[in-house]
Amino acid sequence: MAVLVTGGAGFLGHHLVKLLLDEGKEVIVFDNLWTGSAKNVRYFEKHPSFTFKHCDIRERLPDVGHIEQIYHLACPASPDRFEESPVEILETCFQGTKNIFDLGVKRGARVLIASTSETYGDPLTSPQSEQYRGNVNCFGPRSCYDEGKRIAESLAYAYHHKHGLQVRIARIFNAYGPQMQLHDGRAVPNFIASAMEGQSIVVYGDGNATRCFQYASDCVEGLHRLMNSDHDSPVNIGSDVEMPIGLIADMVARVVAEKMGQANCVDVTFLPQREDDPTQRQPDIGLAKRVLGWAPKVELEEGLDRTVDWFLAEKGMASGSRRAVGGAITPVRL
Ligand SMILES: O=C(O)[C@H]1O[C@H](OP(=O)(O)OP(=O)(O)OC[C@H]2O[C@@H](n3ccc(=O)[nH]c3=O)[C@H](O)[C@@H]2O)[C@H](O)[C@@H](O)[C@@H]1O
Predict the structure, then answer these.
(1) Is 43 designated active site?
(2) Which residue range(s) make up the domain with 143?
(3) What are the residue boundaries of the NAD(P)-binding domain, all occurrences included (predicted)?
């Protein structure tokens, strides 16, 4: 079976491509390497079932033969990019998604889109179930992504009803893991980068904003199960273990210091909260458990351990033996 992955050179794309190749699929990747990496592509280039097409999904798409499924992941996902390239992100979410849906109709392929917890905006209720309609600011620094992903979901609904396209919608909550860019801008790689470089970790706000981080392999397993399920309404894919960001910063500082054999952790600096940054986020994953038989397996401690090992290896800084670490850890209230 041939499967197309848009954004397959990105962080989640990499893990998904690996899973699909491992199960014997023919995989074609579309990526313009905007936020994805050539290194992620090189990793697979010798695989006989892998094809890479360097292209921008906002433009005319390259020809592909028979494909049965499309995982549509292509879009920058770091809030830093939202501020740099809002127009391009909106174009990707609307025109890019529309081009992919047209391809899905032409080829009779099922399309799964990577939507997001950001469709709930700064939620007024917690945990967020798929029925919650969200609290999104349509005129702010995050709106290109939040509204972009909401229009992508609307397009999925429209194509399903007008053209009979088979759609699957995954609302992904805060994924992290190996293959992220060190300077991606999201919390986990930022915290690891600062700790590895011996710099203070920057936390926006008072450290009490919460997130639930899910490890990459859990996330792509959820996407894969959703694609192969009968469920055509949105499904939350995330961990439901909620933690304050300040505590995650402390955990990262400690893991990096232990692995680098340092006696003290880097400290944490608090800067003002960013505009429209959600203060509380936790998915209700009851639906994913029921209809997909899926729940995340990798605990945060284990996932951070593996992720830090990967970043250290990438930088040629082999992980040292772990030792107890002292130093100032900023206490955080939940
Ligand atoms: O995965 C999701 O559910 C969505 O949320 C993410 O947005 P956000 O939750 O803000 O992700 P991060 O940038 O990792 O930030 C998490 C929290 O850490 C804080 N943060 C981030 C980076 C940093 O250096 N310091 C810091 O305190 C942020 O202000 C925020 O409160 C991104 O928008 C998307 O990748 C994704 O669709």
Answers:
(1) no
(2) 2-175+215-237
(3) 4-306
